[in-house]
Write a structure and sequence with these properties.
Bound molecules: zinc ion
Number of helices: 5
Low-confidence stretches: 1-15, 20-30, 196-208
Shape: elongated
Distance between the termini: 16 Å
Helix content: 25-40%
Mean pLDDT: 80
Strand content: 15-25%
Length: 208
């Protein structure tokens, strides 16, 4: 099981970032031929895991815009919010550009939601075929829903983003479980109250 840590806590929070510290999950084969084994002389069809209801619902959209739209609908549902939020702008960037912008240099961030700017994504991620990458996109879309709907907006900036982060991780795990992915993400958490203005936890390279 991959354990992924994320970080976030900025006193004046602008960006919500997701780090990738685990190998991506292999894309599930869409059209796996039936496989057989011989058990005590009998030819037995091996069970192939069926695509989950959520995987079928998301499907394999032709464009990133369609994928974002479908994931956003799931994010609205999982957060218990009414439908109707417009998709955020999505900007694909090289990993170098993304990390320079969000961390000022190399770090393990692969995607971020920046209120006002939308989603910034490492253009080498494959949320179309990789369910872990898809869950990262989903996580950032949960932040979009939280931002647009003003979830926890009564709290101070750091507490608000702590709560949003905790929820986003929980929903990302629910999303992964619903996909049938054997991977979980872990919210490393970060304290408030010390004028933290930088990521509270350092990461090694993503290993990809
Ligand atoms: Zn997050």
């Amino acid at each position: 099981m991959g354990i992924i840590t994320d970080f976030f806590c900025r006193a004046a929070a602008l960006a919500v970032v997701t780090a990738l510290n685990a190998a991506p999950v292999a894309a599930s084969a869409a059209a796996t031929p039936d496989r057989y084994d011989v058990v005590y002389g009998a030819r037995v069809k091996l069970s192939v895991p069926a695509a989950s209801e959520l995987a079928l619902r998301i499907g394999r959209p032709d464009t990133l815009e369609q994928l974002v739209s479908r994931l956003l609908a799931v994010a609205e549902e999982f957060t218990g919010q009414p439908r109707g939020i417009r998709s955020p702008r999505v900007t694909l960037m090289t990993l170098g550009e993304l990390q320079r912008r969000l961390c000022g240099g190399p770090c393990s961030v692969r995607a971020a939601y920046v209120p006002g700017d939308g989603l910034l994504i490492d253009r080498d991620m494959r949320p179309d075929v990789n369910e872990y990458h898809q869950s990262i996109l989903f996580h950032e879309l949960v932040h979009h829903v939280q931002d647009v709907r003003g979830i926890y907006s009564a709290l101070g900036s750091c507490r608000r983003w702590q709560r949003r982060e905790t929820d986003a991780y929980a929903l990302q795990n629910r999303f992964l479980a619903a996909l049938g992915a054997r991977i979980q993400v872990v919210d490393a958490g970060s304290p408030c109250g010390s004028n933290v203005s930088r990521p509270a936890q350092a990461f090694g390279s993503s290993g990809e």
